[in-house]
Write a structure and sequence with these properties.
This protein folds into 2 domains: 105 residues; 86 residues, Immunoglobulin-like. It starts with 6 loop residues before the first helix and ends with a strand. It has 1 helix and 15 strands; from the N terminus they run H-E-E-E-E-E-E-E-E-E-E-E-E-E-E-E. Helices cover 15% and strands 43% of the residues. It has 266 residues and is mainly beta.
Length: 266
């Protein structure tokens, strides 16, 4: 014998079902919205330029308190990365507020995972926008509040990142066989810049701090038949010893220029 429901019972079941769905849908909608927010947050903070090594389970914390170009804070969305030589061992996206915490990952020989080696120098790069509105990847100098510039020094490092945008002509064509070799780099006493490929042309050579201050310059130099050497001892023209750090050099000859970087470590 088939069971049947009265019209009253059918209406009761229908009403209860609707109430259950009405109770469930707000929860589903809230869950979907939460997931969407977390997904968008992840996308907004994901690295798109630098490709750091994955987590090795051996973190080293680096706190960046500020990052500037010519004294102006970098734009939101800038990517900050730390390198051990050419290996990117950590990266983070700056989102309007400092300080920013960057995690660097130490190598794990046990599990054959790549990472930094304790005691190696930290090199910081940033993908950001310059004062002309162009996005670029550059090396940034460091001012340490805690730490000495080496991976694994203490429990963590605290630092500020600074660099300068040196105003030079945008268009430049290198002469054939042109080259500048700086050695040693980094240096702790004297660096020699070997300039080759300029035939009987005069040129100027300037060095800037990462804050954009000109600290050394020499003019009217002749290429000496294609090769010339410029020596610098980490001092200003009046003999004042400069602090350790990253310095920018610019060589200009006529309408052509060359920019590079050298690190002074006392």
């Amino acid at each position: 014998m088939r069971d049947t429901l009265s019209q009253e019972n059918r209406e009761t079941v229908k009403t209860v079902g609707i109430r259950r769905w009405c109770f469930l849908f707000p929860r589903i909608n809230s869950w979907v919205i939460t997931v969407a927010i977390l997904f968008c947050h992840y996308i907004g903070n994901a690295q798109t330029h630098f490709q750091p090594v994955p987590s090795t389970g051996l973190p080293y914390t680096i706190v960046v308190t500020n990052a500037t170009i010519n004294g102006v804070p970098v734009v939101s969305g800038s990517e900050i990365a730390v390198f051990d030589d050419t290996l990117c061992v950590g990266a983070v996206v700056y989102q309007d507020t400092f300080p920013v915490t960057l995690t660097a990952w130490q190598a794990s020989p046990t599990y054959e995972l790549a990472g930094f080696t304790p005691g190696h120098s930290m090199l910081f790069k940033m993908f950001t926008r310059n004062p002309m509105g162009e996005w670029f990847e550059g090396i940034f100098g460091t001012v340490y509040e805690t730490g000495n510039g080496f991976f694994g020094d203490g429990a963590y490092s605290v630092l500020t990142l600074i660099t300068a945008s040196v105003a030079v002509a945008k268009e430049s064509t290198y002469p054939a066989n042109f080259n500048i070799l700086s050695y040693p780099n980094p240096f702790n006493d004297q660096v020699i810049f070997k300039i080759s490929g300029l035939i009987n042309e005069k040129f100027s050579f300037k060095i800037y701090s990462v804050s954009g201050q000109e600290v050394f310059s020499t003019f009217g130099l002749s290429s000496c038949g294609g090769n010339c050497f410029v020596e610098w001892c980490g001092q200003t023209l009046i003999g004042r010893l400069l602090p350790s750090g990253l310095y920018l050099f610019v060589m200009q000859s006529g309408n052509f220029y060359y920019k590079g970087r050298v690190t002074f470590q006392k």
